[in-house]
Amino acid sequence: MSSLMYFLASGKYKRLRGTEKYLEVLRDRIQQSQETLGQQRVEWAEQGVVGKFMHFRKYDYDQFGLKEFLDERGLLPAVSIVKWQDLSDDEQKSLGEISSSIRKVMKFVPNAELRTKKEEIEEHKKKICNLALDDLVWRWKEIKVDHKSLSKQWEWIRYNSTADLCNPDRYKEYGAVISMQTEPHLDAANAFKCLGRDAFMKYCKVQDDLVIQYGLKGYYLLKEVRKFRTLADIQRRYYLMELHEESRVRDMLGNKLRRYSALSQLETN
Hints:
Blueprint: H1 3-9, H2 12-37, E1 41-44, E2 49-61, H3 63-72, E3 80-81, H4 89-94, E4 104-110, H5 118-128, H6 133-159, H7 162-165, E5 175-181, H8 188-195, H9 197-203, E6 205-206, H10 208-216, H11 222-226, E7 229-242, H12 243-268
Antiparallel strand pairs: 1-2, 2-7, 3-6, 4-5
Helix pairs in contact: 2-5, 2-6, 8-9
């Protein structure tokens, strides 16, 4: 029995999709309870979980103006990416041979029996409706661990089931097995050269982090690029995660700030 057949026949796939829905329900209940408490951050040390509200600025960008500004300085390919899926067949061919970076991957479309039904979600809501906040967090943590394990197994199967892609009919009772290709990473400088300026301007997506880095290196003043954005909204989002995940995010942010600081010091020296 193949890994895919076992995952489907054993009920693991149905459990994977069910845990996704149950985590959403629990997250919403925990968020509502935390809002009632009026606390921006709550840590459940025993469960190793933290819930917090964070605010983010949302900007509207003058994309054309920003791209023109960067292109005039010869920096547009250096701070942009181009996605393979956005290009036409002819444009993809113009980039040359890149097949070495493309992999086959499986897409699975489940039939009705493997999908989580509305009745199942409602039953889950009934089971947790009278739970205390601490117990809701325990339940979220338990399902999170199960979901993480199932997700890792499923991702491995998706990328390592090329033999199953040759015989998709054997899985018809569970759903449709479809062969797809991963999107290759494109070299922006090569894409600019092959597509030409106008097409590259059309498809490229400017990366904020790279724009900041090049500004700190002294290629332009950051205030010059900030004029191409307008504050549209300040959004409030809720995050529920394990404490080690929060620590990892904090470390990543700290590393980014240290990198920015090092770049700005290089410019001043």
